[in-house]
Predict the structure.
Amino acid sequence: MTNIILNGCNGKMGRVITRIAEADPDCTIVAGIDINNYCENDYPVYTNAEECIVKADVIVDFSHPSAFFGLLDYAKDTKTPLIAATTGLSDEQRDALSDASQQLPVFFSANMSLGINLLTELAKKAAALLEDSFDIEILEKHHNQKIDAPSGTALAIADAISGELTTVPEYVYDRHSVRKKRSANEIGIHSIRGGTIVGEHEVIFAGQDEVISLKHQAASKEVFAVGAIRAAKFMKGKPNGMYSMTDLIGEIL
């Protein structure tokens, strides 16, 4: 049994994770942390990490970057493995996660979907094989309420691909501002916002007379909740260090 403290338990993702965990016999949420404690839960909810007196095997953070450092201090003080699933973390916050991994197990992923992370691994393999003769483009689609563009996941895919290439590529966002031919050393990244699209990411490898496309579509937020629960189980009992979906997928395969 994996006991979980859920930070951001009363947010949209927090409610989905709570529902998924309730149906899973191998894990349970023993406490939640949320500035909004108006929801009824089957576990105690604290308005901040400092108030939490419940011990757990892991902490899952699906809240807001503004609550990051308080939760990180709590995780370090209690030596509780931390799964950082909050989007929009700054470079400073990511560096703090890396530093904290020397004191406790830390899991970080820009996207908690197993599918999108499998797509990323496949894209890395394709990029290493095709870089000399294929152009690489990334297209992402999200709902009309999403503020950031491109998505953090699209950038994470681009970074993963870049790490496999022999020459560091230039990221080009859309193409309306510059009228010139595409250079070979580019990764194009394009964003679409509309309706209630949960999330779609496509990596296109365009070569001479052939195109290879890797695509992932999320139909609901449940895919991220399922990934977070699997990450929680994976992190129980792990030694100090930095972990990611690559490690989780490697264990599954």
About this structure: The first strand starts at residue 2 and ends at 7. The first helix runs from residue 12 to 22. Helices lie at 12-22, 68-78, 91-100, 114-130, 152-162, 222-235, 245-252.
